[in-house]
Write a structure and sequence with these properties.
The protein is an all-alpha fold and 121 residues long. Helix content is 71%, strand content 0%. The chain is elongated, with a radius of gyration of 29 Å.
């Protein structure tokens, strides 16, 4: 189950998130030292905001990891979501011009699908 989080992409992401989290804590500490040296209200607010940014990013990352663990692993397999073609129904009860136009569009659709399937071989 956790093996999906050990792929090179995920390991790189783990390291990146850890480095960014530590960086936000460092930046918060740096702003705190500036605020204590008389930097003013802006530095005090940044001293609080940087750790909050880090915690918020960590919270989103944990949600992303949880979604990856709860995801169906066969979801990415080709052919897992097969869409069958269904011929559109043409409404002939109303306007005859509209019915003729819809029939023409359906014929164009059939031709396009026929060309796509013959080119896809």
């Amino acid at each position: 189950m956790f093996y999906r989080l050990l792929t090179p992409k995920w390991v790189l992401m783990h390291l990146l998130v850890a480095a960014l989290f530590v960086a936000t804590l460092f930046l918060g500490y740096w702003q705190l030292t500036k605020a204590e040296d008389g930097g003013g209200a802006v530095n005090w607010s940044y001293a609080l905001q940087w750790p909050l940014y880090g915690c918020m990013g960590l919270w989103f990352y944990v949600r992303m990891v949880r979604d990856e663990l709860n995801r169906d692993p066969d979801e990415d397999e080709p052919g897992s979501s097969i869409v069958l073609y269904q011929r559109p129904r043409i409404d002939t009860t109303g306007d005859p011009e509209l019915a003729a136009y819809n029939a023409y569009l359906a014929e164009l659709n059939e031709r396009a699908l026929g060309q796509r399937s013959s080119n896809g071989r």
